[in-house]
Design a protein that fits this description.
The protein is an alpha/beta fold. 31% of the residues lie in helices and 15% in strands. It is built from eight helices and 13 strands.
């Protein structure tokens, strides 16, 4: 039996706060305790000063695990680290240690919840306009995360494209914290999913890069875009997205040298090419939908947690 003490601040929307997942873990002899003295492992969503306070208090008498599916919460590439001037290991499970996500749809597969109809000459004759929509929070800091010399951060690039598009009237921006008069509204107001769909359905192209360019870190962005019948403008170089999408489906920004090239290409795209591309995306969506009828991604994720905790406890 393994007893976990949760440092709950950054663990919302994780298996450790989901009632069904907690039941699964208990069936595998993993339980949660409110008594820090009684636990075997302290579990946190971040390697921060709060976790450090327990590490300094208990040292090697306890085990420590950081588990997060948010790329910005932890950016270690090693599965264990020593920090806070101690020799005690802190075990890591995150996007970069490759033991959270194992495919392009386990991150937000709940969004892929129906078969979609293909577009044809009867239900999609022509473009209303060729504006791009961008739904994102504005960041006023220069972000960077590199691995082996390769830049993994996509927020700066995505934001640069949105700003250039705004200046030329090519991109409509929605989101929080943008400088005055740039954002047309807030995409996360009220019911986020419904609000987002309402916006996407007014457009035909959606700038929907992930925050981080890493294997299998694929959130709801590309799937929501397809569900809203928007052709995704995604970043496909350096990740595994083409395991599920064919070439020439979504618009891959890594094929373009700069935002101007992208905007010129979209301006020239024909309705037949648009239908062909979006239909390839819809077919990819529908294929994943069929997989998800029998695929239990939560169980796979939970089993990795069980195996990790067993390994930690044995060492």
């Amino acid at each position: 039996m393994f007893k976990i003490f949760l440092l709950k601040t950054y663990l919302n929307y994780t298996p450790f706060t989901d009632p069904k997942s907690i039941i699964f873990l208990s069936k595998n002899n993993i339980f949660f305790t409110e008594d820090e003295r009684d636990c075997d492992i302290f579990l946190s969503g971040r390697l921060d000063s709060y976790l450090a306070s327990f590490l300094l208090k208990y040292g090697a008498k306890k085990k420590y695990l950081v588990w997060t599916h948010e790329p910005r919460y932890d950016t270690h590439f090693q599965n264990k680290v020593k920090t806070f001037m101690t020799s005690v290991n802190i075990h890591i499970m995150n996007v970069y240690t490759k033991d959270i996500y194992q495919n392009n749809y386990s991150c937000h597969c709940a969004q892929i919840n129906q078969r979609l109809e293909l577009l044809n000459e009867s239900n999609f004759l022509n473009f209303n306009h060729k504006k791009i929509v961008a739904l994102m929070t504005y960041r006023d800091t220069d972000l960077s995360l590199k691995k082996d010399g390769r830049e993994l951060d996509l927020i700066n690039l995505r934001q640069k494209i949105a700003l250039e598009g705004f200046e030329t009237g090519t991109v409509d921006v929605y989101g929080r914290k943008w400088p005055q008069k740039i954002a047309l509204g807030e995409s996360r107001a009220n019911d986020w999913s419904s609000s987002k769909m309402g916006i996407l359905q007014k457009y035909h192209f959606n700038l929907c890069f992930e925050n981080t360019n890493f294997d299998y870190y694929c959130t709801e962005k590309i799937w929501d875009s397809i569900r809203g019948r928007c052709l995704p403008i995604y970043y496909g170089k350096g990740n595994k997205i083409y395991q599920d999408f064919p070439i020439n489906s979504f618009l891959d920004y890594s094929d373009f040298n700069n935002p101007k090239e992208l905007f010129l290409y979209i301006n020239k795209i024909t309705v037949s090419e648009f239908r062909e591309r979006i239909n390839l995306c819809i077919e990819a969506y529908n294929t994943v939908y069929e997989k998800l009828q029998t695929y239990n991604f939560k169980k796979e994720m939970l089993l990795k947690i069980v195996n990790k905790i067993e390994t930690i406890s044995e060492n």
